[in-house]
Specification:
125 residues; four-stranded antiparallel β-sheet; 5 helices; 4 strands
Length: 125
C-alpha cells in the first residue's frame, strides 16, 4: 500500500487546484510499533507546517467504527489546513522536510491523504 504521495500525485493536486486554501484529510493505519515513529514525525513536521502557513485543525485516535466494512477502521485521523495547494506542495518538497519523511513512511502501513474542497455555505458564519 502507498503511504506517501508521488510526483504524479502532487502534479495532479496542483493541476486540479480550484484556488484558495485546502484542507487535507489524513487517514492513518500504523505499522506495528508505528505510533511512536509517527509522533516523532509529527513533532518534527510541525516546524515545516508552521513555515508554510499550515495548521492542524484536528488530530485524534480512531475509535468505534459505526459504518465501515471489515478493515476500514483507521488508527488515527488528522485534518490539516494549508493556505493553498502550492503551500502544501512546497512544504513536501522542502529539503529539510524530505529528511524526516522516512519517519512517516516507516510509521504507516496504510494511509489516505486527500485534498478537500469546501461545500458552499458550510463553515461560514
Amino acid at each position: 500500500m502507498a503511504v506517501d504521495p508521488r510526483g504524479a500525485d502532487l502534479a495532479r493536486l496542483i493541476s486540479e487546484d480550484p484556488g484558495g486554501p485546502v484542507v487535507m484529510l489524513n487517514l492513518l493505519r500504523f505499522a506495528p510499533d508505528g505510533a511512536a515513529a509517527y509522533q516523532e514525525y509529527s513533532r518534527r513536521a510541525a516546524e515545516f507546517l508552521h513555515k508554510y502557513g499550515g495548521r492542524v485543525l484536528y488530530g485524534g485516535q480512531g475509535s468505534t467504527a459505526l459504518v465501515a466494512e471489515t478493515g476500514q477502521a483507521w488508527d488515527a485521523v488528522l485534518v490539516v489546513w494549508y493556505p493553498s495547494r502550492d503551500a502544501f506542495s512546497s512544504m513536501v518538497a522542502d529539503p529539510g522536510y524530505l529528511e524526516i519523511t522516512s519517519l512517516r513512511t516507516q510509521a504507516l502501513s496504510e494511509a489516505v491523504l486527500q485534498a478537500t474542497v469546501p461545500w458552499p455555505g458550510f463553515g461560514e458564519s
